[in-house]
Amino acid sequence: MPGRNTIFIAVALSLAEAKGAEAIFLGFTAADTLYPDTQPDYLDAFRHLAALSSKAGVNGNAPTLIAPLIQDDKLAIARRALQLGVPIAETWSCYRAGTEPCGVCGPCQLRDRALIEVGRPDLATPQGRDHYAQEHAQEIERVTRLFWRFMLTG
Ligand SMILES: [Zn+2]
Known about the structure:
Layout: H1 4-19, E1 23-25, H2 40-52, H3 55-58, E2 64-66, H4 74-84, H5 106-117, H6 126-153
Parallel strand pairs: 1-2
Helix pairs in contact: 4-5, 5-6
Bound molecules: zinc ion (ZN).
């Protein structure tokens, strides 16, 4: 959805002022580099806006916009979550509105791949584990074919 972070942060700034919140945490990650509304310059512009758009901001107490994962890829995030004891089985990345993660959409696949690669396939969705195994089977088949082509042709 184009501009969604602009909408989410604007709503968060409004709620922060109404509730007197001191900080707003954003889930931007290094995997989001394709989106202009997840970049450090964009975040700085919203920090400036936060200082101008509320009574608290004008008084020098704008809520702080914090994106603690902005430098981390999904693998680093999965490792950190495991180190911190985050209940990963209760987390959700899916973009679909089901009662369970679909395991097929992009965010589900990124989440599952990271969990499998950090050695916790049990926390991935069944669809994610199947997809990962299928990808690896194709890669093994490709490398095997290259190996035999090299061996047979010199
Ligand atoms: Zn999904």
